[in-house]
Amino acid sequence: MFIYSILVGCWIPSTALETEDEAIVSQSSQPSSEPSQPSSEPSQPSSEPSQPSSEPSQPSSEPSQPSSEPSQPSSEPSSDPSQTSFEYFSEVTCGSNYDLWEISGSGSINILVDTVSSSTVFDPFSGAYEGPNVDNLTLIGDGDDENDCSYPPPNYGCPEYSVEYSGTAWISVGGYGDNCNSSGTGQYRLRLDGAGADTATLYTGNTNSSNFSWVNTGTYTTTITVGCCHHVEYQSKTCDSSTLGDTVKIGGPTNVTPNTGTATLLQSGQGMSAELYSNNTEIEWSGATGCGCDTDASYSVEIYQCQN
Fold it and tell me: Is the pLDDT of residue 253 over 70?
């Protein structure tokens, strides 16, 4: 079983009422000079200006309504940084076992399961549970055929759904016995978007084990960054409790020729080739540096995962 995460897994009106107010005020100022002519009737014209003088108060309050409108959309972009998307890869035996992923957080999360190749296609299903441990779970949502699969099985589709949770949640991924490829093993991509999406770890049933190691989980078609590069350098990572579930994608083009060749960039989660050391607890991989014309492209790569 293995995990692959990508950070995936992130956004005002004025009125022109002043001229109207001025027009109304100017009308009210004209009658103020008229009361001097009929001195015997001051009360009649003096009361008339009071009527238009009160009218400006009505439109003067109207600008307060549009002035409050910009506050509504301005609050929406503030939530975007928390809505990051992460992807994980694994495989299940159709009609037999299922994977169980543990996440932690509080809020809403969107769950999508998709197939990754025509040779490992299957009909997946998924469920989300809330509870402190695997022996005490309550179903809070599930999915089955909400989306078309990238590589569709003979029948049905792929699951996508959203749930609200607080604390610890568990996400299961399994495959039906029929509509599975001839090998009987289905490979999938799990995309999580929302609260706790970056915390997913694959439940192994023995979380206290200290037998950590990097495992080559197989070959998958996924997106990596390539470019026109000048040099080759190396990175390494140790598999332990702090890196459990981390993945490294190895593969893609290897032509490190300035301005003309294309090679896989050296990054924290990808490279061109890899070696395992210290009883597979350490992985070292090479990648291209000093690159230009960087671009994301789809390649078939091997994915190494830190497991215990």
Answer: yes
